[in-house]
């Protein structure tokens, strides 16, 4: 079965891409759980954090530093934001392609339910 994130990365599927580098792509979550909700995804198809080891340190580091770049770019670095990674079905992971969620931009009264 095809991977929806690989399809977005390879432009086969429409995605709202806001940032990309040689190693990763960031796009808007289709069902945002926050005023700003961006997914940061390595170009390489890795299923989850459990499928990584020390040889993937660079990719994992890149995901987090891109999350900081995106937060600055989206104007939520000052106010603060959440970086969330769901791992496996029991951890709430629905899409089997490694990704982090960058969430922020809430107002005081907003519900802050995580993805
Ligand atoms: P997770 O539960 O961590 O696997 O999160 C997967 C996220 O991908 C969810 O927040 C979905 O709303 C989001 N999502 C699913 N399909 C798409 C898509 N085609 N474009 C953008 N985001 C998507
Ligand atoms: Zn994939």
TrEMBL record:
PANTHER family: HISTIDINE TRIAD HIT PROTEIN. One of its GO terms (molecular function) is catalytic activity. Residues 4-113 form the HIT domain. This is Histidine triad nucleotide-binding protein. A motif (Histidine triad motif) lies at residues 97-101. The active site is at residue 99. InterPro entries: Histidine_triad_CS, Histidine_triad_HIT, HIT-like, HIT-like_sf. It holds the Pfam family HIT. It comes from Candidatus Terrybacteria bacterium RIFCSPHIGHO2_01_FULL_48_17.
């Amino acid at each position: 079965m095809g991977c929806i994130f690989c399809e977005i990365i390879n432009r086969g599927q429409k995605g709202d891409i806001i940032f990309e580098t040689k190693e990763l792509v960031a796009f808007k979550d289709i069902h945002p759980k926050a005023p700003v909700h961006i997914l940061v995804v390595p170009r390489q198809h890795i299923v989850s954090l459990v499928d990584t080891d020390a040889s993937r340190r660079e990719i994992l580091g890149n995901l987090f530093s891109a999350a900081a770049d995106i937060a600055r770019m989206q104007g939520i670095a000052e106010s603060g934001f959440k970086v969330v990674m769901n791992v496996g079905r029991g951890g709430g992971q629905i899409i089997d392609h490694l990704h982090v969620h960058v969430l922020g931009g809430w107002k005081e009264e907003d519900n802050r339910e995580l993805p």
